[in-house]
Amino acid sequence: MKTLALALLGMLLALTQASATEPPANFTIHKTPQPVPEISFQDADGQPKTLADFSGKIVLLNIWATWCAPCRKEMPMLDRLQAELGGPDFEVVALSVDRKGPEAVRKFFDEIGIKHLALNIDTSGKAMFTLGAFGLPLTLLVDRQGREVGRVNGPAEWDSSEMLGFIRDRIAAK
Asked: In this predicted structure, what is the pLDDT of residue 22?
């Protein structure tokens, strides 16, 4: 009986560990990482940026706009995700496609208390189309080599324990 109990406990532990690496339900993961088309944008100071600037990091690239209700709702969750996991191995890159410019984004960030996300903007909206967004928000998980591992079309609970565990596993898998 003791052997059976230990075997069951071992199986439960194995299942728990396996499920930590499983993507959340709304995450579409590619069988093999896909190339990410080149996109360009600007930071808060108007300096040009590309995803290559984040090479060597796991990047969660979120395409959003201040006029998009689901985007507005998930922005505080993305800010908490960046606060929790951001650093030398991971970065949330929130890329606004607001045509009104960085002032509109800065105002929104101030209104809702965003403290950990950098302001990035593509006023042309080209990134949205280049990445094949059918709507907003669109979020890509990009590996250290700049390849798309998976994506979420629509909003997500970015600071949920399931999402945090999934992303932590991706960061740990160097």
From this structure: 84
**Cis peptide preceding 137, ω within 30 of 0:** yes
CA distance 91 to 81: 9
- The whole-model pTM stands at 0.87
Residue type at position 46: G
Q: CA–CA distance from 50 to each of 27, 31, 89, 97, 102 (Å)?
A: 24, 25, 17, 14, 17
User: What phi and psi, each to the nearest 5 degrees, are found at residue 44?
Assistant: -60, -25
Residue 26 has pLDDT above 90, yes or no: no
**3-state secondary structure (DSSP) of residue 75:** helix
pLDDT interval class at 107 (50, 70, 90): very high
